């Protein structure tokens, strides 16, 4: 369910959902975000998966690398 206003975790942390387009160096960005004071976590799963499933309203596309 969608809601208006800030999204807050059970621990009281704000959640920011950002779209950056293509990320040239995900590993470097992951490191930078992890080392930034105040950033609790991020959604860059570098070196944790070699396949993703992208769902749309009509199908699912599997991307491997």
UniProtKB/TrEMBL annotation:
Superkingdom assignment: Archaea
Pfam family, one: Rib_5-P_isom_A
Annotated keywords: Isomerase
Gene3D superfamilies to which the protein is assigned, alphabetical: 3.30.70.260
Keyword Isomerase among UniProt keywords: yes
GO molecular function, one term: isomerase activity
Protein name per its UniProtKB record: Ribose-5-phosphate isomerase A
Provenance organism: Halorubrum pallidum
């Amino acid at each position: 369910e969608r809601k208006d206003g800030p999204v807050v975790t059970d621990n009281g942390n704000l959640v920011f959902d950002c779209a950056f387009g293509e990320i040239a160096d995900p590993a470097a960005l992951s490191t930078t975000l992890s080392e930034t004071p105040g950033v609790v976590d991020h959604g860059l799963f570098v070196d944790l998966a070699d396949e993703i499933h992208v769902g749309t309203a009509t199908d699912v596309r599997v991307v491997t690398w």
